[in-house]
Amino acid sequence: MKQRDTTLNFEDIDVERDENTYYDNELNSENLNDNNDFVEHVEDEDEEETVRLVWTFIEGKYFYFITEFCSGGDLRTTIKELQMLPEVERVMRVWEIFAQIIISLDHIQSFTIVHRNIQPETLYLLSDGTVKIGGFYFATEIADEQDYVDIAGTSEYMAAEAHLQGQMNFSSEIFSVGITIFELLTGHHPFQAESSKAIFQKIQRGQHTEFPEWVPSELNRLISKMLDPDFQKRPTAKEIIEIETIKMCILIHEQKQREKINEIETDGFKMPTKLHKYEDYEVFDELSGGAFGRILLVKLKKNGFVYVMKRVPYLKQKDKKMADDEVAMLIKAQSRYTVRLVQAFPHDLDFFIIQEFCSGGNLKGLIMEMKIWSIEERLLVRKCSKYMYQILMGIKHLHKQSIVHRDLKPENILIDKDGNAKIADFGLAQQMIKSYVKDAGTLIYEPPEAFTMGKMNEQSDIWSLGVIFTELVTGVHPFAVGSFDEIIAKIKYGRYIPLPEYVQGELKKMIELMLDVDQDKRPSADQLLNSQLMKLQAGIQNTKE
């Protein structure tokens, strides 16, 4: 923090709340127990997590503090804007905002500070979409996380203990965040009623409005716990941070921050710092077209950065469900080993999914290229084990999210500009609600159970990987010899082409287990990653990082 210029006074500041770089807040100095302590609360916070304090001074009976200007306004405005987005896109954005709020709250609480006034009006947006906590007017220190402080702030955002006992603690802040997230999703207060008294009664009883059906169950359960009238049953900020979706949103946000201008570069493209419209993109090539939509290569008009655009019909109810399901899967599937989702939006009668462009092509092209390599090049260069490791890491993440891909094949494993493998095309992916999901995908990569039972599960993905890994190592599909009926029969009975002599040891054992007709005998992604071959590759990957 810079040393304050004691000669600065109110006349030196041109107050323009809408256009000026900074804006001022004023408090009656008589209402503050100790101005210095108050300033200390704000200064102690990392400017990455909270609205940055620039200057403070006293003029007459008022205490002024100058903070950075957050051009995106507060979350009250965002609540209104979010209601105009499609439900799937809205949920995606709310998860992002939620993650940033909770990481900021955890940071504040690490300094044993209770904000006491968390609400949409004290949460601010920068132009790049970053969320920061501000409005530290009522912030105060607390002895420890079990301690209480007197109430302050806006009563409609106070927890049950504040209304019943006149006291607040760290858990009270979780309650306030829960209300805010509910508002971001639905556009209204969860304890909405005709009078303030009725609102307070609902808060005390925990009688919040039911969630709309489109709110994901994971988010529904989490917010409901945050709004529990019993503060001991609410999750802590640290517990919320450990939730996989929150962790992934934090990881993505941190990666953006490291790029300074919040743009993630791959070969010829950057992640937009804001959501764009269909008109902002220019189509310059078509990669493919099929029953589930067209895949287009597009560039952002203002800067020429390249993306992949998937265009799917969005008129009939079943089309909407298919598109919404794919985006929902993409959100859950986000990791460094899956193709990055940039944004998704409806336009006219279609729905558009914008994704990272992987300039290295796909694994099918690489397999074709490797056919001319010598055995030594294929095995000693370690490219095969590198791709196996990255694909298994991606599948491990998907299965941890209870997602079965159902259409794994070389064409759906993309290669980015750095030569890393990323899993793509979640159009047929389905969450494991039961033990099995219905058969879908490309026949020659499907497992025996897809033909004998018409169903697939996590072990079915492992079979598909076994086929892909065989192709990667040998350049030949293990079943694709003979007529169509002969190929299907071979798959049903596990009669694959014997592996070449040069495929030996642990690698051979891995592939044989993955191609076992008995799905119960196939190893999980986690078990395969625990092999010495994959552990060795993990060590190589970590060294490069």
TrEMBL record:
This is non-specific serine/threonine protein kinase. The keyword ATP-binding applies. GO terms for molecular function: ATP binding; protein serine/threonine kinase activity. It comes from Streblomastix strix. Its EC number is 2.7.11.1. InterPro entries: Kinase-like_dom_sf (IPR011009), NEK_Ser/Thr_kinase (IPR050660), Prot_kinase_dom (IPR000719), Ser/Thr_kinase_AS (IPR008271). Pfam families: Pkinase. Residues 1-246, 281-534 form the Protein kinase domain. Keywords: ATP-binding, Kinase, Nucleotide-binding, Serine/threonine-protein kinase, Transferase. It catalyses: L-threonyl-[protein] + ATP = O-phospho-L-threonyl-[protein] + ADP + H(+); L-seryl-[protein] + ATP = O-phospho-L-seryl-[protein] + ADP + H(+). It comes from the Eukaryota.
